[in-house]
User: What shape does this take?
Amino acid sequence: MAITYGKMFAVSVMVLLACAPHIAQQDVLKKPFRQWTEVEVTKILNDSGWAKTQAIRVLRRKQMRSVAGQVSEVPTASSPARQAPLGGAEDAVDYRFTLRLRSARSIREAIVRLVHIESKYDQMPPEQQKSIDEQTMELLECRECRHNYIVSVGFGSLNSENVDLVYDWFRGQTVASLKGYISLANELGQRRNLINFIPPKVPGDEAFFFFARLDEDGNPLVTSRNKKLLFRMSDKNASSITNFNMDITKMILDDKLEF
Assistant: This one.
């Protein structure tokens, strides 16, 4: 039977290009999410235990290709040949990839709060607030998250408005074409392969990746005892800018893993 997904995945968050604010994650999380400011929402969505933005500047003459959804020749953060020197004569393209752990409630709360801020929720009368609450409830509760780890990847650029590599790479892909390329793993080498996928529909959309929460023996991929969560789009190049290593210790809330 086909799996259907609700309003949670109709809300895609573009990469917020403002510099990550210098505020502590724990200070934000002390407050109810309905009190978060736009700066605090940006922190949670771009630079927190459940979100990470990786950026690189690439010379325009460098071309990137994709094969069945797998990016080849992806620049690495440590590859000077693919980076333009500051003040160099050749203009460089700024690439920013943001990973968000959508099955973490803190990320979903930040997205709902972003909806609040953009719709001026705090200034609405109670009946209008109730309508917004009803519209965002499915996103917040996320029944799909009970059985899946859900990860989204988005793209942004400071100097190339008409470029969206995530859209270009994934718009025509399927689970079948991506299997073997996309995976989620822990630091022990245990991994989950892709079981479902939602491609971006328009530039600016995120791509969504689904992985089984439990293995055949009923064990989760990560617990509070683990140290790292690894999202891989390239097994050949561990330092690829589209590979992400997340610190499990930053996902612990009240002694429990939030993901």
